[in-house]
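Schema walkthrough. Field components (list of strings):
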Amino acid sequence: MKIAVLGLGYVGMTAAACLASRGHDITGIDPNESKVNDVNRGISPISEPGLADLVEEATRQGLLRASTTIASLADDTELAIVCVGTPSAADGSHNMSFIADVSRQLAHFISSNDRPVTVAFRSTVKPGTVEGFILPIFEEILRDRSDLVELVYNPEFLRESSAIKDFFSPPKIVVGTSDGLRSAVMDRMNEGIDAPTFYTRFGESEVTKLVDNSFHAVKTAFANEIGRVCEKLGVSAAKVHEIFIADTKLNISPYYLRPGGAFGGSCLPKDVRALQYISREVGGHTHLLDSLLPSNESHKAFLFELATRDLRHGARVVLLGLAFKNATDDLRESPNIDLARMLITAGYHLSIFDPYVHPEALVGQNLGVLSNSPFVRDLLIDQDELSTTEWDLVIDTRSIASELRLTASSVVDINRLS
Ligand SMILES: NC(=O)c1ccc[n+]([C@@H]2O[C@H](COP(=O)([O-])OP(=O)(O)OC[C@H]3O[C@@H](n4cnc5c(N)ncnc54)[C@H](O)[C@@H]3O)[C@@H](O)[C@H]2O)c1
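Field assembly_structure (string):
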């Protein structure tokens, strides 16, 4: 394939050299003359293990060259990969000026060339960028020839210092397209690379990279907060880490990572509070830990808004699930009790279905929960009432609504956000 790589930084140089090593014909474009001169002399302008050899070999074989201008691209270029920088602007947003420049230049190139080109954006951008920022630039310049450009968003997951290995063996390939369907050109570019591949719409593909990097930051900050507390307590942080990561059932696993219900129950909130207290005592300054309970409260309010948007005052609502999780009668710190309270306060006609909760059988702290939330006793209904009532809204905290025979105008599953 004849491919243009725009932006010869860490991402662009790696893509250019790796694609050339697979036999593609690559032209790199960058306004930085010194980078362009380096590439044309077979020298890698950036330091990355293995890259110097790939660049030298690719230029020797005539498969890699560079230029400061897009005008030097071959007429039959079929793919342009955009890897320009999107540094932080003063307000924390991405500085989009390089993306705008390069989009305009490519649109003019396609317009004067009158041939179809797939333009794959690899730079990290915020969701909505391709449709709301990039597409209008191409449409303004190409007008009735806008069909000549296929826009694709293809986030890059490589890590500097192992970039070449990551390029050929990425953790995943994500390709965002306007309709979420495959792109033939991107399939050809990725031929031979074995990785889970996701075709999706632009929004999901654009947010992926930000989600991944934020999660890596959360993990690092969490590890360091625990390390600080352990160190101050005289506990071995290394041993705690060893034990923590050995648990691949609950800790290093997909568990607790699905967006859905708020956390609750007898352990999580209590133990978070306890670790916060311990951390405060030893001066751990564990800000991430301190943010967990407020974040959970915000989520409860979000779920209430999600479930009740467009719902009329006084509507008949049933909440499926009251205990903090399925198949238990444990009501301690159940987020569903908070939700029930919000629904009643907002003036909805609420019923609750939870076949595991029997008020007369509750003991200990759970009995206490019931005295603090006396409304629960009157609102609990049985399976018969559940299936014979016409509900305006079913709020499903267990993802069980489809298994039950219900008559409902609307069902909102807050256990799994769609
Ligand atoms: N570095 C990484 O590990 C990494 C990993 C994944 C994603 N990303 C994202 O990829 C993008 C590029 O990152 P990078 O680290 O390679 O950036 P970089 O700053 O190293 O390189 C960007 C290059 O783009 C060039 N450029 C600017 N305007 C241009 C134009 N109009 N035409 C052509 N080239 C132009 C610059 O001269 C520079 O050489 C960023 O959005 C970054 O967030 C980076």
